[in-house]
Write a structure and sequence with these properties.
By secondary structure, the chain is an alpha/beta fold. The protein is built from 17 helices and 27 strands. It is 35% helix and 24% strand. Strand 13 and strand 14 form a beta hairpin. The termini are close together. The structure holds 5-amino-5-deoxy-1-O-phosphono-D-mannitol (M6R).
Length: 607
């Protein structure tokens, strides 16, 4: 939620800030703004809409001769989408940008009214600017220290003081910030995608530490004034990974990147003659000792990956697994103790509810393992153990390559766990690993179906309601197919366990309604076929997706997509690709903004 960038150094601030905001736009795209320091003081340009609108406005404003500034792209929380509510916000000496939510902004507003300060926007951020200004008596660090004792909630701030040109102060609590000092100056942002043009080396700003940025250096201090040397990290991808690379949308590029992202995630963890090995992840076999229950918790697509993981872990390790939506889990008073392993999944590693779930699990002595894409993210840092997905930066709001990379980690984990617990032999394990490797060429082949899927989606794009049905693993996949389609095509859809349809929902199946029917699992194939007949008898338009080796009668479908043949347990990988392409092309045919769907943002750092 919200993208932040700050720069001070010897480059043109406009170029750094606007370029950074374009890279960060996936985090929020309601409005955008910059503040920069020039010989007249702090100037602000902001507007509703996309960064391109801001670009136009900046071009119209003369000047912008500056080497220091801050920029923001907004996902509205407090206050509607308007120029006034856009960031930066100023009060007196202070101009700030903010990512997060100040929970006690109302009380602060009442307190600050007594000092004669009144907001002109409806945002919590402006109240924070008023607070900083009310505390400022020339010492920025002291002001921030005092403000932090009063602010409740999540935040990442970049702050300019009008009497300190060339200096940017920053602090964060919960919301992400990464920073780097390079030859051209000092940079800070919500995400490395905004900084990769300038450096591959960076550090994650430690929570509640004050960052003072000048052209020459970045100083990080604790709230008690101790200077610390933050741990440096390196990104292992380059700028091409964060650009569209000839594809019309990031989502399509990311769909097509899946053979690579899976190779990168799976291959380094296969050693000792085709056995899974987590030694370079520092995950000891003793992690599984004394565990008698697993809870997988996450949000959205990551939670759907967990639904597939449950099937795998229960089948291979024979241990009870439940999958919980993180926002429910964190307030649900779950039964947890040291014999519970809590597995969280997150692409961004910053999802507020998932992070809170880990904190709760640790409070109750459960062991925690996270499967995360972003290195050094909050979820990665706070979990006992981390398995990184090496999917590279995922820019489209709709998660694709992160999902299949999460699946691959869950498969590896299930094989490893089952082997360590003696539930499978080394030979069986190596056999599973062979099937997992076979997924990569199968996905390459599945991607060649994109034109066929594009054609099918021309008619899907005209519908307003549809269903996804499946059983077992296919039901887990249906949930994922449905969210993907909803979020980018705005078509209402429901995922149903095929056997459950006749307990209520079948009444919604009428003439012509599309039913995307997943039938990749041999053990329930005949049951699925019966369910498909039931919807067809009510006039449904059936799009059937089957595993390559299954026999299909022509009378039961309108469109048939046969996946490259894989062992049933591994069909979720190829099925996921088809569902992603269905969502993508349907959105394209509806003429929508595929990468930045309405009301959504990539990284959900608020509750
Ligand atoms: O960054 P995370 O994986 O924790 O994000 C979780 C969800 O917000 C995310 O998967 C969301 O559902 C996607 N936009 C779906 O495509």
């Amino acid at each position: 939620m919200c993208g932040i960038i700050g720069f001070t150094g010897n480059l043109e601030a406009k170029k750094v800030l606007l370029g950074g905001l374009q890279a960060l736009e996936y985090r929020g795209y309601d409005s955008a703004g910059i503040a920069y320091v020039d010989k007249f003081g702090i100037q602000t340009v902001k507007t509703t809409g996309k960064v391109s609108n801001l670009l136009e406005k900046v071009e119209q404003s003369n000047g912008l001769d500056s080497n220091c500034g801050i920029g923001h792209t907004r996902w509205a929380t407090h206050g509607g989408v308007s120029d006034t509510n856009s960031h930066p916000h100023s009060c007196g000496n202070v101009t700030i940008i903010h990512n997060g939510i100040i929970e006690n902004y109302h009380e602060l507003e009442t307190e600050l009214a007594a000092t004669g300060r009144h907001p002109i926007s409806q945002t919590d951020t402006e109240i924070a600017a008023m607070l900083f200004d009310s505390l400022y008596q020339g010492d920025a660090v002291d002001t921030i220290k005092k403000a932090v004792t009063k602010l409740e909630g999540a935040y990442a701030f970049c702050i300019l003081f009008s009497d300190q040109p060339g200096v940017i102060y920053c602090i964060r609590n919960g919301s992400p910030l990464v920073a780097t000092h390079a030859t051209d100056g000092s940079f800070i942002a919500s995400d490395m995608v905004a900084l990769i043009d300038y450096s591959k080396e960076y550090f994650v700003v430690p929570e509640k530490h004050i960052v003072t940025m000048t052209a020459d250096e970045i100083v990080v201090t604790t709230l008690t004034g101790e200077v610390i040397a933050p741990k440096m990290l390196y990104v292992n991808w380059d700028m091409t990974a964060a650009k569209k690379g000839g594809y019309p949308h990031f989502m399509l590029k990311e769909i097509f990147e899946q053979p690579d992202s899976l190779r990168n995630t799976i291959m380094p963890r296969i050693k000792k003659g085709h056995l899974p090995d987590f030694s370079t992840d520092n995950i000891p076999d003793s992690l599984y000792d004394g565990i008698n229950r697993i809870i997988i918790t996450a949000c959205g697509t990551a939670m759907h990956a967990g639904l597939v993981g449950r099937v795998l872990l229960e089948k291979l390790v024979r241990i009870p697994v439940t999958v919980e939506i993180a926002s429910e889990f964190r307030y649900g008073d779950p039964v947890l103790d040291s014999s519970t392993l809590v597995i969280t999944l997150s692409q961004s590693g910053e999802t507020a509810d998932t992070l809170a779930a880990i904190r709760l699990a640790k409070e109750k002595n459960a062991k925690t393992l996270s499967i995360v894409n972003v290195k050094g993210s909050s979820i990665a840092r706070e979990s006992d153990y981390v398995l990184y997905t090496h999917a590279g930066p995922e820019i489209a709001v709709a998660s694709t390559k992160a999902y299949t990379a999460q699946l691959s980690c869950l498969y590896l984990l299930s094989f490893h766990y089952a082997l360590v617990k003696g539930m499978i032999t080394e030979e069986e394990c190596a056999n599973y690993i062979g099937h997992l490797q076979a997924v990569i060429p199968a996905i390459e082949k599945t991607l060649t179906l994109d034109k066929t899927i594009d054609e099918i989606c021309q008619s899907l794009a005209k519908t307003e309601d549809l269903f996804f049905i499946g059983r077992g693993l296919d039901y887990a996949l249906s949930c994922e197919g449905s969210i993907k389609l909803k979020e980018i095509s705005y078509i209402h859809s429901e995922a149903y366990a095929a056997g459950e349809l006749k307990h209520g929902t079948l009444s919604l199946v009428t003439e012509g309604i599309p039913v995307i029917s997943l039938a990749t699992q041999s053990n329930v194939y005949s049951k699925m076929i019966s369910n498909i007949r039931e919807v067809r008898a009510r006039g449904a338009m059936v799009i059937l997706i089957t595993n390559g080796h299954l026999d299909v009668e022509e009378t039961i479908y309108d469109h048939h997509i046969a996946l490259t043949e894989l062992d049933d347990l591994f069909a979720p990988f190829t099925a996921a690709i088809v569902l992603q392409l269905i969502a993508y092309y349907t959105s394209v045919h509806r003429g929508l903004n595929v990468d930045q769907p309405r009301n959504l943002a990539k990284s959900v750092t608020v509750e």
